[in-house]
Amino acid sequence: MTARRRVRRGAAVLALLGVLTATACSGGDAPADPRPLAGGAAALPGPAPAGLALRPAPTGAPGAPAVTGTLTDGSPVALADLWATRPVVLTFFTSWCALCAQRQDALSELARTYRDRVVFVGVNTEDTAEDLQTYLREHRVEHPVVVDGDGAIWRSYAVREPPAVVVVAKGGALLRGWPGGVDATELDRRLRELVLAG
Fold first, then answer.
1. Which residues pair with residue 82 across a beta bridge?
2. Which of 92, 96, 119, 152 has a 20 to 30 Å separation from 161 between CA atoms?
3. Which helix (H) or strand (E) holds 124?
């Protein structure tokens, strides 16, 4: 073997060792996504706007179930804390629901339009964390999302299958529900009719 071949072989061995060492040190895992999880505590609303004009809830309206849950990042949330200062829209969905996906972009835009005046909260079940994050990012869901792993919140609102939408007044009165969901145009109209004054 010539000296030149020995040098080339030695260089190749060193390069291979460098690759193997780097892989062993990193565990071969892809770098962690630096973005916060979509639907986590960072998506919770700020303070309600001063002077927010709301219609009073109808007398005799039933109370919405005041459940607690966990957001996508593990943060606890109580729905009663959210509707203490403004109305709440609950959207029950899964990433594998075709109708949910068809309507989600428009609902996400509506949630941005009403930001801080009406709190949108997604309630998800029967999903993997990865599938849920993919869905939330693809559909630009910027509001909080509760992970209802055992379906207890869905059952408390009598939701049997996705999609479903529920509107709760400030203070917790249950105003309206849509089994089978509702499109953003109709929901916008009903929010103005049911909860927003002026």
1. none
2. 119
3. strand 119-124
DSSP annotation of 152: H
Cis before 163? omega within 30 = yes
Q: CA 165, CA 93: separation in Å to the nearest integer?
A: 9
Q: Look up residue 167 and give its DSSP letter.
A: E
The residues, ordered by sequence, that sit 6+ positions from 107 with a Cβ below 8 Å of its Cβ are 91, 120, 184, 187
If we measure between CA atoms, which residue out of 196, 179, 180 comes closest to residue 188? 196
Question: 93 pairs with which residues across the strands?
Answer: 124
Q: Give the pair of three-digit tokens for residue 71.
A: 């957001």
* Closest of 51, 58, 97, 74 to residue 145, by C-alpha: 74
- φ, ψ dihedrals at 187, nearest 5°: -65, -40
CB 66 within 8 A of CB 79: yes
The tokens for 120 are 């949108």
CA 163-165-170 angle, 5° bins: 160
Q: Tokens for 92, please give them.
A: 């029950």
Q: For residues 130 and 132, give the distance between their C-alpha atoms in angstroms, rounded to a whole number.
A: 5
